[in-house]
Amino acid sequence: MLAATATECPFGKGTSPVTWSSLDSDPASSVDARARPPHSLARTLERHFLLERLNHCLERQVLVVQTPAGFGKTTLLTQAMRQFRAQGVDCAWLTLDQSDGMRAHFLHNLARALALAGEADGRSWPAALRALAETDDEASCAILMRTIARRGNRVVLVLDDCHLADTTSFNYGLERILRALPDNARIVLAGRSRPRVSLSTARARGLLAELYAADLSFSRAETEALLGARTTTADLINLLDRCEGWPAPLQLALQLGEPGVVGGSGRRMHPVLHEYINDQVLLPLSPRTRELLVKCSIAPQFCGELAEAVTGGSLDRSVRAELALLTPLLTPIDGRPDWVKMHPLLRDTLTAELVQGGRAAIIRLHALAAHWFGAQNDLEAAVRHAGAAGDFTLAAATIQRAGGVRLFIRVGNAMLADLLDKLPPTAIHATYGLRLARAVVLAKKGRLKEARRLADEVRRAFQGAPVAPDALPGDARDDIEHIDDLIKIYEDREVDAETIASREREVERVPVSDTWMRGWIHNHLTIQLCRYGDLGRAQQAAHSSLACYREEGPTYAQVFMLIHLALIGIACGRIAIALEPAREAESLIDLAHTKDEGLRAIAQVPLAEGLYAQNDLVGARRRLDFAIPTMAAGEGWVDIYARALETRIRIALVEEGLGAAIGFLDRGYEIAAARDLWRLRWTMDAMRHEVMCRTNLLVEDDQIGLALARDVAAGAAPEGRKLTWRELLAGRITLARGALFRNNPAAALAWLDAAVAQGEALGAYHWVIPALVLRAIAQGRSEDSEGGFKSFLRAVAIASPQGVVRPFIDEGRAMSSFVRQGLRRFGIASLSAASTEFVAHILSAASNDSRATAGGAGGLLSEREQEVLGLLNHGLANKEIARSVGLSEATVKFHLKNLYGKLGVNSRVMALTVARQQHLLH
To answer: What is the secondary structure of 532-597 as a DSSP string?
Structure first.
């Protein structure tokens, strides 16, 4: 490509000779103004990183810079020219126009630009450049290339706006120059379209570099630097969202001093920006391409087939070529071939033009789009466009055809709610399927009475008619039963063994091939078994449901089953394992349900519970502070509310104090009252009792505690409402804490023995751990230190593999004092190495001892004991230790006695041996 032989530049013969005199005498053809970068008084940003990249690109011989209008290619190249000239590099600039479409004009204009640049820099070029006018094209090319080659040092030629000279003659001439380009020459070809010359050889030889709009887009940091510190955060975010890095609108915002120039946030785009986009982007397009874009602006994304459907014509090669040049104003969508996303500002400009055509034309376009999307089974888009067209019959029929009531499993509740919101009430009430779908949405919004009324209306209608007026897909009566079950979950209806057995018989009757129905039944079984207390079978049902949903593909249903698996895992005390499905659920939400805030909120609860158990209070708090208000205003059920609020109340008590904890208690009572959830109200009573105990505010005549004790003893609240296993466990533990507060360890042990037995029978080790910790404390106060230490070690054995430390830390000084006394009596040697590290960790955390180190003594030994142990390890005698630490020998002996007691030894040698085994030496 780069052979410097001028003989291979045969410009076309028969062209009229162009002389310097003819160019100079004709003002229209003068290149003086075009031989320098365009003049600008606008404040620009020095883009150092991009300039460095451009310099790196010019290590190669040919650089192509292709972007749509307004991406700053001319500004960037102007800045680069200044740098090159400051470094003594020979540079020439030529802004091309239509006159350069004749290759003879182009060649002589390029020569003149080079000569003018040399004169301006004080480095004049040989007079041979001016002699080009006296020779033919072929000789001119040879002279120009030979002159550049003889220059010796690097020569940079910048050709801007190459698209304006895009003719066959120009492209042929440019290709001949590229083939004869000397080794010391660099050429930059900048424009809105790619030069139509062969560059494959240059690319294969590593001689070609390319920059596109994505490379020149402004980053957030550059946007902030350009607009200055006075731009508010809200305006900055709006500019970033609306401009998507497009420099020209940002520059206009700077010049006009109005961040709102780009529209958004309830504001209209500034007319100046409309004019710029129209003049620079749309006006150069062919009428056919512009019409297509205007009509496709009814959708934020479109493809070739959709464009043909709304325009009524086919996309020929020339139209597709023009659309391709608009990247990234039309951005290809990953994973969807032939689909592009329209830039927000471009779409606004096109929509403004579309509106001028009248409402009737817009409605027609939306109707065409609705039918096309419907044929593609893109339900959301079909309903959106049908609603925009006012064709609610079509919208309702589309939802009905796609599954109606079962649609929320496929696309998620947020999307179903959005689809139904596009329909008037008359369209929804016209069909049973849409009324049931509306009932689902209402139930998930917490409007349970309305949901129940709609579901009961549909049930009565089906009971009174052997054949439904509108045919629901599948078995309509099954749909009604499942929606009824769903509403019962939110209403917190009681679950009994017969209900569960009925569901299990039902799933046996469903063919294995009907994965939709099997997934749905197992879904309900999971919730019912959890409430009933059979956690093992609940986990099996959740896995079965998840497998069915994964086979069918709906990510919304998969998220819920992953959340249930996480909740079950935490209830079973398997925190580390439970966090895996919880995080997978969060990832699926990020991937497919980013707009469903309710779903995201629910997914935060098991994550927050797990993080709290592992003592990450900050992570748990952040998640719950988003989840609780979101669920209170939307979807939630008793257990998810209870678990979220219990965790948040405990965090508030640790981090913020009693007032904050009471605030979250009151929030729980509000939710319970708004949704008529008596079990949540009961749970808040139990938490209030716990808070009063922890803050030493429990009164002797504690009416809440008395009511809790009565309910737990009876297994039911007043009016015959049965407590579930969860309330019974939580109630027994909090009542035991109250008994300990009143210094009645015998009563506490009665509650705790029942709680431990119940929890272990259910496999609910999330509650067994705190029950065992409290039982250890109660046994210690009952003079059963050995039994208490065994209870403590049992709790450690369950908790340590999962990193569960909060149940220990929450008991504060009572737990720390008991453990230290136990260690003095039974010795650290009674613990395994892993248990020693775990106990050291919880004691350190409980005492907030920042000096503890992982694998060291931590809270097991006092600071002085740790110091004495270290000096023993260095072989010092008692007198030497006393001198080293500034104590009397008697005091050192006192510390040694305590140290020996904790280690369960009676000599220095044994003390050091045990300390090494337990990793207590630093």
So the answer is: HT-HHHHHHHHHHHHHHHHHH--HHHHHHHHHHHHHHHHHTT-HHHHHHHHHHHHHHHHHH-TT-H
